[in-house]
Amino acid sequence: MSKPEVEFPEGPAPSSLEVTDLVIGDGPEAQHGGTVDVHYVGVEFESGEEFDSSWDRGQSARFPLDALIPGWQEGIPGMKVGGRRRLVVPPELAYGPAGAGHRLSGKTLIFVIDLLGV
């Protein structure tokens, strides 16, 4: 797979997590509390500005799910290796409300995640 183009949903930002499978994988399934190896790109919902991409660093990222933002903790389990999933994550499941101290606080974020391993 190559770095995805992030397609923007129409209309206002959602108030709850939106999970969309773009490609269904056929490998092992990600589990709550497990570790995942992913390639991902993240963009701001409002501006469309990319704020992070493992693709641009040239290497995937390996994380314990419990260490990630709540939107990833809820949105990745059930995904299978080889799959690509889009998550639209409201602020309360990302970096908190505006003023919470992170540069992305108060922002709805879109991630496209490729699951490479569990």
Automatic annotation (TrEMBL):
Residues 33-118 form the PPIase FKBP-type domain. It comes from the Bacteria. Keywords: Isomerase, Rotamase. InterPro entries: PPIase_dom_sf, PPIase_FKBP_dom. Pfam families: FKBP_C (PF00254). GO terms for molecular function: peptidyl-prolyl cis-trans isomerase activity. PANTHER family: 39 KDA FK506-BINDING NUCLEAR PROTEIN, FKBP-TYPE PEPTIDYL-PROLYL CIS-TRANS ISOMERASE FKPA. Belongs to the FKBP-type PPIase family. This is Peptidyl-prolyl cis-trans isomerase.
